[in-house]
Specification:
By secondary structure, this protein is α/β, with parallel strands linked by helices. Helix content is 37%, strand content 15%. Helix 2 packs across helix 6 and helix 7 packs across helix 9. The structure holds ligand F0G.
Length: 420
């Protein structure tokens, strides 16, 4: 494994007195972090990354949740609800079924709005306040919109969300509505919504809080930091592999960055970096295609379809950050079909862990990769589940059992039960 440590050699630029700056991953241009609204590189439109003069080690972390990791973040505290410190479940029956040395499930559905998006929003909304913008916006398959609406409300800011019409799970739209976001349903898919909101941002109408915004990914790094700390505390070792659902590939990029920074700090050896393994739905799998075919660029899928609507995405904007993450950690990417997703959702539910369909991809993925022997029985694996079961009540209801109609008397109920 060759872990790229390019950022290590980068000199502290003359753009910040804070020891934090933005660097374009394509052309290397550097920018001050908080002085202007900027989502991509002014020169080449490449993706930006937050860079630091110093990186903390595990000893520098204290407190609870996302802000335990403030030394690895651009400031001390964000607009917080609070977020992070999600459970790392054991799933003994699934572990037995797939045959692994260790299998844990990091349930990000236990964040305040029910998905990992909260970890990024606590940072991103604070940056928006610091820069001084007043209208926040995102395109979303649902969870980002719920998180933006809640964190925007908490920060006292106006929020606008663009959703693909008819393709967002009920729980997520309900959250965005109740937290007071203005909801625009676009006649198009998620990628179309992202094109529209980027255009609005370019015209100065809104501050963009999709994962294209490099500050969002800083908060999401803390998933990786928590996993490493918890696994180490649990079994005295870091996990060999982290398996995660992939849509825009923001999490994949964020986890890779978290691990690279730990390596730069001397807190993690390159060979200890977990193999990042991305799972997509078969009907929306451009990252899997790029990994399988060895392409450096993503082919945008115009037609996407999957029951896992959260990851119904054909143009993963963070691919230039995420593809090296998968490759350089020795991971891989595979797709799973909708039936495999629902079966995994049920299997997790049988262990008491309730997740939405996209989240179940990581479990469907570990099953598949174990069968193919791509994952070794000796590995310690963590699967990320990204959103809560209640996000998509229709799918949960469909995957579970329907209620029985019974009369309003005990004898009748007993008769009904005896009839099974
Ligand atoms: N899982 C869930 C539940 C999601 O909501 C998303 C993304 C992902 C996985 C994919 O994560 O983009 O970091 O690879 N949802 C976005 C949204 C697109 O609008 O809520 P990624």
């Amino acid at each position: 494994m060759s872990l790229r440590l390019a950022a290590e050699a980068e000199p502290t630029p003359d753009v910040s007195d804070d020891e934090v700056w933005l660097t374009c991953i394509a052309c290397g241009a550097q920018f001050a972090p908080f002085e202007a609204v900027r989502f991509t590189c002014d020169n080449c439109d490449g993706l930006l990354e937050v860079r630091y003069a110093d990186h903390p080690t595990f000893d520098d972390f204290e407190g609870h949740g996302v802000w335990r990791y403030s030394e690895a973040l651009p400031f001390d505290k964000g607009v917080s609800l609070p977020e992070g410190a999600t459970p790392l479940h054991e799933v003994p029956r699934l572990r037995e079924e797939v045959g692994l040395r260790a299998l844990r499930v990091k349930h990000e559905g236990m964040n305040p709005t029910g998905s990992f998006k909260d970890r990024g929003m606590t940072v991103g909304v604070k940056v928006a306040k610091r820069i001084g913008v007043d209208r926040l916006a995102c395109a979303s398959t649902g969870n980002t919109s719920a998180a933006l609406a809640a964190y925007g409300a908490r920060g006292g800011m106006e929020t606008l969300v663009l959703l693909p019409e008819g393709k967002v799970a009920a729980g997520k739209v309900a959250q965005a509505a109740l937290h007071g976001a203005r909801i625009l349903e676009v006649d198009g898919n998620f990628d179309d919504c992202l094109d529209r909101v980027q255009d609005l941002a370019a015209r100065g109408e809104v501050y963009l809080l999709n994962s294209l915004n490099p500050f969002r990914l800083e908060g999401q790094k803390t998933i990786g930091l928590e996993i490493l700390e918890e696994c180490y505390a649990d079994y005295g070792a870091f996990p060999d592999r982290i398996i995660l659902p992939v849509g825009n590939a923001g999490n994949t990029s964020a986890l890779f960055k978290a691990f690279r920074e730990l390596v730069q700090a001397g807190a993690l050896r390159p060979e200890e970096v977990p193999k990042l393994t991305g799972i997509q739905a078969a009907g929306a799998a451009p990252m899997v295609e790029a990994i399988t075919e060895g392409n450096d660029e993503i082919r945008r899928w115009e037609e996407v379809e999957t029951r896992a609507t959260a990851i119904r995405i054909g143009n993963p904007v963070n691919a230039p950050k995420a593809l090296p993450g998968i490759r350089e950690t020795g991971g891989t990417a595979v797709s799973v079909n909708d039936d495999e997703i629902t079966s995994a959702q049920r299997a997790l539910a049988e262990e008491g862990v309730g997740v939405e369909p996209a989240s179940a991809c990581s479990i469907a993925g570990v099953r598949k990769l174990r069968k193919q022997n791509i994952i070794d029985a000796d590995e310690r694996v963590v699967c990320l589940t990204t959103g809560h079961l209640l996000k998509d009540p229709d799918e949960a209801y469909r995957a579970g059992g329907a209620p029985d109609a019974v009369p309003n008397d005990t004898e009748g109920i007993l008769e009904h039960l005896a009839g099974d």
